[in-house]
């Protein structure tokens, strides 16, 4: 069965510091990995997906199949990055997404 | 398009009462999902539909929970009878089914408090 693990429920950094939100997964097929973000009082929304291989709001994430990881990184955190971040795994057959437990990121001034 | 629309936004009820949450997906989306969000367990998939047909309801906690999708533009999640441990935010999301299309659009959520 597919599983997504985010080991940190809470992560706090200072503005300008690098940030890494960890995500590990287990899945027997070919995974699609995503990061979703929920800013305060806003809807959960897609941040980025591994197949796009793009940087969104300065964030990047690389799929490491050997380590079954999809960590989210940003070299210089900003206060507006404070939010709840969810890593998600999509099945090969499409449709269904399995989410991790989420990491609440706080960027302090 | 107004996006995924959920109602009510907030619901406070007493234990034992019936609760009905509603969702209108994005027009043209053929997959619909119900998730429950809690601090302890994060986002849990309760049930999802493809083309109005329930595909996987293994995440539904117990028989007190039921979900329907009578047509492509409407779904309900019902809890009867409700219990305090059902208190959570319930999200509805929709997408277009298919490989490489696991991008979900979420509603604003329904915050349920059972006293």
Task: Please explain how this structure is put together.
The complex is a heterodimer of chains A (109) and B (115). Chain A is 0% helix and 44% strand. With 109 residues, chain A is mainly beta. In chain A, strand 5 (32-38) and strand 6 (45-49) form a beta hairpin. The relative contact order of chain A is 0.35. By secondary structure, chain B is mostly beta strands. Chain B is globular. The interface between A and B is medium-sized, with 25 and 28 residues.
Write the layout of secondary structure elements.
The complex is a heterodimer of chains A (109) and B (115).
Chain A: E1 3-5, E2 10-14, E3 19-21, E4 24-26, E5 32-38, E6 45-49, E7 60-61, E8 72-74, E9 83-90, E10 97-99, E11 103-108
Parallel strand pairs in A: 2-11
Antiparallel strand pairs in A: 1-4, 3-8, 5-6, 5-9, 7-8, 9-10, 9-11
Chain B: E1 5-7, E2 10-13, E3 19-24, E4 31-38, E5 42-50, E6 53-56, E7 65-71, E8 74-79, E9 88-95, E10 105-106, E11 110-114
């Amino acid at each position: 069965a597919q599983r997504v693990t985010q080991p940190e429920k809470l992560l706090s950094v200072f503005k300008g510091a690098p940030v890494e939100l960890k995500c590990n997964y287990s899945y027997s097929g070919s995974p699609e990995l995503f990061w979703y973000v929920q800013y305060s009082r806003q809807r959960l929304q897609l941040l980025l997906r591994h197949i796009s291989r793009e940087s969104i709001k300065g964030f990047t994430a690389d799929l490491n199949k050997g380590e079954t990881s999809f960590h989210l990184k940003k070299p210089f955190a900003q206060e507006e990055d404070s939010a709840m971040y969810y890593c998600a795994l999509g099945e090969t057959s499409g449709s269904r997404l399995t989410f991790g437990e989420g990491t609440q990121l706080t960027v302090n001034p | 398009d107004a996006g995924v629309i959920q109602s009510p936004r907030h619901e406070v009820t007493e234990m034992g009462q019936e609760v009905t949450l509603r969702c209108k997906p994005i027009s043209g989306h053929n997959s619909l999902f119900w998730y429950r969000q809690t601090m302890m367990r994060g986002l849990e998939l309760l049930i999802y539909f493809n083309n109005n047909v329930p595909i996987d309801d293994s995440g539904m906690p117990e028989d007190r929970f039921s979900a329907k999708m009578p047509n492509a533009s409407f779904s309900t999640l019902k809890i009867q009878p409700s219990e305090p441990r059902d208190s959570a935010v319930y999200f509805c999301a929709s997408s277009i089914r298919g490989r490489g299309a696991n991008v979900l659009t979420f509603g604003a959520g329904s915050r349920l408090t059972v006293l």
